[in-house]
Amino acid sequence: MNKIEFTINGKKVATQVEGRTLLVNLIRDELKLTGTHVGCDTSQCGCCTIHLDGKSVKSCAMLAAQADGANIVTIEGMADGDKLHPVQQAFTECHGLQCGFCTPGMIMTAASILKDHPQPTEEQIVKGLEGNLCRCTGYINIIKSVHRAAELMKA
Amino acid sequence: MYAFEYQRAGSVAEAASLLAKNPEAKLLAGGQTFIPTLKARLAQPSHVVDIGRLKELAGIEVKGNVVSIGAMTRHAEVAASADVKKAIPALADLAIEIGDQQVRNRGTLGGSVANNDPAADYPSAVLALGATIVTNQREIASGDFFQGMFSTALQDGEIIVRIVFPMPKRAAYSKFHHPASGYAMAGVFVADTANGVRVAVTGAGSSGVFLWKAAEAALTKTFAAASLDGIAVDEGECIADLHAGADYRAHLVGVMAKRAIKKITG
Ligand SMILES: Cc1cc2nc3c(=O)[nH]c(=O)nc-3n(C[C@H](O)[C@H](O)[C@H](O)COP(=O)(O)OP(=O)(O)OC[C@H]3O[C@@H](n4cnc5c(N)ncnc54)[C@H](O)[C@@H]3O)c2cc1C
Ligand code: FES
Ligand code: FES
Prior knowledge:
Bound molecules: flavin-adenine dinucleotide, FE2/S2 (inorganic) cluster
CATH architecture of the largest domain in chain A: Roll
CATH topology of the largest domain in chain B: Uridine Diphospho-n-acetylenolpyruvylglucosamine Reductase, domain 3
Largest sheet of chain B: 5 strands, antiparallel
Radius of gyration of chain B: 18 Å
Strand order of the largest sheet of chain A: 2-1-5-3-4
Order of helices and strands of chain B: EHEHEEEHHHHHHEEHEEEEEHH
Number of strands of chain B: 12
CATH superfamily of the largest domain in chain A: Beta-grasp domain
Oligomer: heterodimer
Strand content of chain A: 15-25%
CATH class of the largest domain in chain A: Alpha Beta
Order of helices and strands of chain A: EEHEEEHHHH
Strand order of the largest sheet of chain B: 4-5-8-6-7
Shape of chain B: globular
Number of strands of chain A: 5
Strand content of chain B: 15-25%
Largest sheet of chain A: 5 strands, mixed
Radius of gyration of chain A: 15 Å
Shape of chain A: globular
Structural class of chain B: alpha+beta
Helix content of chain B: 25-40%
CATH topology of the largest domain in chain A: Ubiquitin-like (UB roll)
Number of domains of chain A: 2
Distance between the termini of chain A: 48 Å
CATH class of the largest domain in chain B: Alpha Beta
Helix content of chain A: 25-40%
CATH architecture of the largest domain in chain B: 2-Layer Sandwich
């Protein structure tokens, strides 16, 4: 077993993990933060995207032990109390989801796109979302949501 | 995933001694290839040695006319580096075309080159630019390093520390992405270097990355896309799989090469 400590959504966690425990499994099964989804488990779909030290990564493609010392934010850490994060607000307003399975990952990735490009072009959004798959929406409203989030964040 | 013991190395020397002690131990860098491999139970290491935090493997440095990039440098860092963009813009252009932003935030130069996937991007730049692979034991010339699909000159226990890229006079990379995976169906890196014109092809060759000698000879005479008219790579040497036949890949190589040259000549 490996002793690890990290911060997740502002809370400090100290625990022990097997070498082979995936970060996503620790987050979902032990910490019960089930907003982070497992869509493919093969690094393709981006449903499991979280922020690790401020950067989007796929938590199904990381060992929990690798996150020792890290600062992690999951979808549960995005809203400020009852106030949705602007990206969440924009997805709601623009109907950026249907079944919602891909949405946590989409929102985490979209927030990273907006960090790099506060006023993104259509191309920057599409390229930024390459690692996230949605089986429902056809992406049109997801792209709209990212544009809308940029407006909300500027305001 | 089969069980293994996770060990975080504190130095390259410690990583090397952990590998030496345990013949079934394997290195973990960004994990973007290795963790999926473990999950699919295609590997069963006794120990996984994490080199992710080693300062000795970090950093991008420009010295004279070479750019030295640490093995643990993430694709996203290469893509965003002002130094790389200035010294070898084609290398930053290549890095931004790898996978997706999540993969680029974890995946590393050393991991990609050590893995030598026949559809990976970096091997083409390493070969075309005539880079040197510096390991914990020796320096390996790019021409000796790549030895066929997923095969390299690395010995058991050998660790890539950094890769040193000589700056070319001019260079460009052009890639036809696999529409689903993002890997190269064909990727061509063209470089006009102090040692002549070099054209490296990835994604297409059934023995992995290779130099396209006929294109190099034609471009040495006249450096223009039209010089490649009537020249083609040998279909017999190209990958044929469910995504594309060998004839299609051979054709793509020509198209990507011309696009790369046009990026340079305008
Ligand atoms: C969805 C997806 C899309 C991708 N798309 C692309 C793409 O378009 N183009 C592309 O080129 N790649 C692509 N990749 C692969 C990606 O670039 C990987 O990051 C890279 O192949 C491996 O780097 P890594 O740091 O993750 O290595 P790891 O997975 O950690 O290691 C890979 C192998 O290299 C060995 N190794 C690692 N570091 C060293 C070292 N310093 N010395 C010696 N051996 C070492 C490991 O033991 C292991 O065997 C993609 C991956 C995914 C998941
Ligand atoms: S579950 Fe991680 S990428 Fe699909
Ligand atoms: S909303 Fe259903 S997968 Fe995206």
